[in-house]
């Protein structure tokens, strides 16, 4: 059996350190906030190369808090990609702003920067690019457009821990960045978790206060906020796992290279922008006859996924936007061809071969 991701296998590989990290949080009773959260925040900020990291309850809240603290709300529009998980546009609506979906690029699956300026108008306040599948969006082009039109840039880096654009880490490429530590992400907790990263002192301070009831100290509240905090157990687990992130990502990259080499003649393999470090949160191929291929793999015990079967503008949740298929000529046909195949650091060489052999034969027989 080959799973898409294997959290148990990963736990077994670092069991001693995880168990003792959990024990020390319980021993210290530092459950919300406290030294374990502070330690992880410091280490993750240093890893990404930014001044501030604020732990929050999950990636969706990281996005919401960022937008809100950047002053984005009613009357504003935010540009984002049609190819992501619903958490991305949900945060825009929750902040009170209007979503402007832009088609994705045919090769990288990231927001198509060549189509972005058409969607900019007087109300546009920000761009929310997603580093989809673990590959940074074309941030140089995005930042140039943002500068020209005076827009904020918020990175959705929830799938891209440890990835790089040119010489900078994802998380250090815009006004602020949002990470999710959902268990299956490249850096995942044992429950929900998230973080906001920024070099902006004021924004960091506001985000930290808003995420914790707008407080400065225990009962001194400057404004109303919400409760979305990273807890001590998750932080301690993340601190242990952060030490392995580069090794795990490099193993993913090694597997991707093998897949690329073996599969390129059979299916469309991922395209990586020059100068970018893709960390393969997902390894997404394109196949004709996807249903048949997925079933043939499932019959051999190999899991696959589809990220995502319905482009965001065409989810029922967004039917009110009345989007036209013809405005999304890339993502619409792609959504019926993309297939995510097993990708995680714990895959053995034998399992990688098993995927390759079975995928080749599935595609050969009608893919
Ligand atoms: C996982 C994910 C999120 C949301 O993260 P949660 O921690 O589950 O709230 C947001 N955007 C993208 C692209 C994601 O993959």
Q: What would you say this structure looks like, in words?
A:
The protein is an alpha/beta fold and 367 residues long. It is 37% helix and 15% strand. The chain contains twelve helices and 14 strands. It starts with 6 loop residues before the first helix and ends with a helix. 49% of the residues are buried. It binds pyridoxal-5'-phosphate (PLP). Residues 58-60, 84-85, 87-88, 130, 156, 158-159, 180, 182, 192, 194 line the site of pyridoxal-5'-phosphate (PLP). Pyridoxal-5'-phosphate is lined by residues 58-60, 84-85, 87-88, 130, 156, 158-159, 180, 182, 192, 194.
Shape descriptor? globular
- Structural classification: alpha/beta
Low-confidence stretches: none
- How widely separated are the two ends? 22 Å
Write down the overall mean pLDDT. Answer: 97
The main sheet comes to: 7 strands, mixed
Strand percentage = 5-15%
Distinct compounds present: pyridoxal-5'-phosphate
Strand order of the largest sheet: 1-9-8-5-4-2-3
How are helices and strands ordered from N to C?
Answer: HHHEHEHEEHEEEEEHEEHHEEHHEH
Total E-strand runs: 14
Number of helical regions: 12
Radius of gyration, in Å, reads 21 Å
**Percent helix range:** 25-40%
């Amino acid at each position: 059996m080959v799973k898409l991701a294997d959290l148990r296998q990963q736990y077994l590989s670092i069991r001693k350190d995880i168990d003792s990290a959990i024990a020390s949080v319980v021993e210290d009773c530092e459950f919300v906030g406290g030294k374990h959260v502070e330690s992880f925040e410091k280490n993750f900020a240093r890893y990404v190369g930014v001044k501030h990291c604020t732990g929050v309850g999950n990636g969706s809240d990281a996005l919401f808090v960022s937008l809100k603290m950047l002053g984005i709300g009613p009357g504003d529009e935010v540009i984002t990609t049609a190819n992501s998980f619903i958490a991305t546009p949900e945060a825009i609506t929750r902040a009170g702003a209007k979503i402007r979906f832009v088609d994705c690029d045919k090769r990288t699956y990231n927001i198509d920067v060549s189509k972005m300026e058409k969607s900019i108008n007087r109300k546009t306040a920000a761009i929310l690019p997603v580093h989809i599948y673990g590959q940074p969006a074309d941030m140089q082009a995005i930042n140039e457009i943002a500068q020209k039109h005076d827009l904020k840039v918020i990175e959705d880096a929830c799938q891209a821990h440890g990835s790089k654009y040119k010489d900078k880490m994802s998380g250090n490429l815009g006004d602020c960045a949002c990470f999710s530590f959902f268990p299956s992400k490249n850096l995942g907790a044992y429950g929900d978790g998230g973080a906001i990263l920024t070099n902006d002192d004021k924004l960091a301070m506001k985000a930290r206060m808003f995420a914790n009831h707008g407080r400065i100290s225990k009962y001194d509240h400057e404004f109303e906020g919400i409760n979305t905090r990273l807890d001590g157990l998750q932080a301690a687990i993340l601190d242990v796992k952060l030490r392995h992130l580069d090794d795990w990502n490099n193993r993913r990259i090694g597997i991707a290279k093998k897949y690329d080499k073996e599969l390129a003649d059979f299916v469309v393999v991922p395209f990586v922008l020059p100068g970018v470090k893709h960390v393969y949160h997902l390894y997404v191929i394109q196949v004709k006859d996807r249903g048949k291929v997925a079933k043939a793999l499932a019959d051999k015990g190999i899991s696959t996924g589809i990220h995502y079967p319905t482009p965001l503008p065409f989810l029922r949740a967004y039917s009110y936007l009345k989007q036209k298929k013809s405005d999304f000529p890339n993502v619409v046909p792609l959504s019926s061809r993309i297939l995510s195949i097993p990708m995680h650091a714990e895959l053995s060489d034998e399992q990688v071969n098993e995927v390759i052999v079975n995928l080749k034969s599935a595609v050969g027989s009608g893919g």
